[in-house]
Amino acid sequence: MTKKYYVVWQGREKGIFNTWTECKKQVDKFPGARFKSFPTLVEAESAFSQNPRKTIVQKPKAAATTTKPEKESKSLSQEEITVLPFTVKIFTDGACEPNPGEAGSGLVVYEDNVLKELWYGIYHPQGTNNTAELNGLHQAILLAKEKLTYHSPVAIFSDSKYSIDCITKWADGWYKRGWIKSGGEIKNLELIKEIYFLYKELKDHISIFHVNGHVGIEGNELADRMSVLAIANQEKSLSLYRESLDIDEILALRAG
Q1: CA nearest 154: which of 32, 37, 26?
Q2: What is the DSSP letter of 57?
Q3: Sheet containing 15-17: which strands, arranged edge to edge?
Q4: pLDDT tens digits, residue range 122-157?
Q5: What one-character DSSP code corresponds to residue 169?
Q6: What is the rounded distance in angstroms from the CA atom of residue 156 to the CA atom of residue 120?
Q7: What Pfam families does the record point to (predicted)?
Q8: H or E stretch including 88?
Q9: Are 135 and 126 in contact (CB under 8 A)?
Q10: SS3 state of residue 231
Q11: Helix 129-147 and helix 218-233: axis angle, to 10°?
Q12: 129-147 and 189-202 are packed helices; what angle lies between their axes, rounded to 10 degrees?
């Protein structure tokens, strides 16, 4: 993989970082984070010099250190999502009518903040809202894996704290304890396992963000319409939406 340098103008720590892993620590779930990759250190230093603070070049650490868990940040707004410097942004949502009942998932792909693709499917006649959200996140990570061939890193947005926390927080502990949860059953375990191992494979190249649902965030609203369409069409496979990508027309479809 080609060497890159990552400039963080707004994050937990500002500066120039040698790896995406270090950059991600500064910007992941940080509201209003501003960062960008550059192919050379000279370009990175030039870009960062526009910031009045002194340039900080991240040096390799002598040994791994243990850090305290980061405080959970607030959900992102439309404005914060728009300025995040990811070429590819994928939104996912799930629907279930009723809950439990018929379930489906929807995905929306933007490139350079321009709507490019809509996907819908993973219909199940007896699902739950949580399984629909997990299926949506699973498909979003699979889609991100494809996009990483051409673009890195990729951002994923979901309005399900449950599905995000299952994969990015809780699953590590469950895995270490042999997939045992203190105090009860791990629901949706096989699906969680599949998503978790995929996430572990890609986590240095993707960032997963939480957004609030039904507050007017365009990508979330479009993903919602696709999840409802998946139920209406009983579409079991993940299918590309081949109708017009007119946003107003899509938003006029039935909401979940």
Answers
A1: 37
A2: B
A3: 15-17, 5-10, 34-38
A4: 999 999 999 999 999 999 999 999 999 888 889 999
A5: I
A6: 16
A7: Cauli_VI (PF01693), RNase_H (PF00075)
A8: strand 88-97
A9: no
A10: helix
A11: 110
A12: 20
Structure tokens at 245: 């990508």
Element at 198 (helix H, strand E): helix 189-202
What is the distance, to the nearest Å, from the Cα of residue 252 to the centroid of all Cα atoms in its chain?
25
The string of pLDDT tens digits covering residues 164-214 is 999 999 999 999 999 999 888 999 999 999 999 999 999 999 999 999 999
Which structure tokens are listed for 2? Answer: 């080609």
Tokens 């991100």, located at residue: 144
Residues in the chain: 256
What is the rounded CA–CA span in Å between residue 5 and residue 19? 7
Environment class of 98 (CB within 10 Å of its CB; exposed 0-12, middle 13-18, buried 19+):
exposed
Distance CA 118, CA 99 (A): 24
124 exposed, middle or buried (CB, 10 Å; 0-12, 13-18, 19+)?
buried
